[in-house]
Amino acid sequence: MPLMDHLRELRGRLVKGVLAIAVGTIVAWFFYDQILEFLTHPYNDIKPLLEERGIESNIVITGIGGAFQFQLKISFVAGLIASSPIWLWQAWAFILPALHRNEKKWALLLTATGAPLFIAGAALAYVVLPKAINVLIGFVPDGVDSLVTGAEYFDFIIRMMLVFGVAAEIPLVVVLLNRLGVVSGKQLATARPWTIVGIFVFAAVATPSTDPLSMLFLAVPMTVLYGLAEVLAHLADRQRRRAQKEPSGSLG
Fold it and tell me: Which residue of 35, 147, 221, 251 is 20 to 30 Å from 72, comparing CA positions?
């Protein structure tokens, strides 16, 4: 298509994506109470444990417009996530026509694999959240109450889920690099000890809490996923070598 047609198509797809996010935000606004209950569930789980240790902790909202801003922020992020299939498809629909048939197949395969991996990582973070919150608030000294602002608590949850979600994409990245010929299964096996050390260092730095259990919850799945990616890389290398030998065998 001519350049102007591409620009018109891009504008149309951007409008559709923004409208989908706006509608998702409006819908999430009406389900704010349910979303807030879901987000505060990890905190409410550990609150009795904190009280047993003599720590009074509450989530507070500060400022005259703080409650409105907090609800708007949560609704927007929830709407962004809920409408992601629509605006992601608009982005893909604009890019896919420029790809070759084989590239389209791999792009769709990577997308179909990456989304479940990210969701699984974010879900694992939600499971770990109570432990992380318990450890961090547990540093509050005796005689001092803990007041957690709603914005701080929400940012903490989002950061944890993003870290775990991105970490779950490791096998996808490794397989993609192998497919592009950047790394081989043999190289991955050679680098395995250093990679595992790097994974544990990353987990220790990336997790907001300082307890080893939260670090292990991130590092162990990452190590297992790396091992899976290494196996897939070995299989892909074997298939590639087999494909290279077939033409020479037929000529002989």
Answer: 147
